[in-house]
Design a protein that fits this description.
This is Biotin attachment protein. The protein contains no helices and eight strands. The strands form two sheets. The chain has a four-stranded antiparallel beta sheet, with no helix packed on it. A four-stranded antiparallel beta sheet has the order 5-4-2-7, with no helix packed on it. β4 and β5 form a beta hairpin. It is mainly β.
């Protein structure tokens, strides 16, 4: 079974970090590629982050309210 790292994407050229607003999926939930996993806030804009692959969400590394850097590993999906 392969693991897929969910990384915080960069939505704008100047974006260096974002706050985790809400996890839409929880550990143990099945996810499809492209399905929304969480909401983040960057530069006063809230954006949904899509799943990079299909499988089961096995680990959440960044909690709601945390501020994380772009490309930080924030969750893991078992494919």
């Amino acid at each position: 079974m392969a693991n897929i790292k969910v990384l915080l994407p960069q939505f704008g050229m100047g974006m260096q970090e974002a706050e985790i607003v809400r996890w839409i999926k929880a550990v143990g939930d099945p996810v499809e590629a492209g399905e929304p996993l969480l909401e983040i806030e960057a530069a006063k804009t809230t954006v949904e982050v899509p799943s990079p692959g299909a499988g089961t969400l096995t680990e959440i590394l960044a909690r709601e309210g945390d501020t994380v850097e772009v490309r930080a590993h924030i969750a893991t999906i078992a494919a």
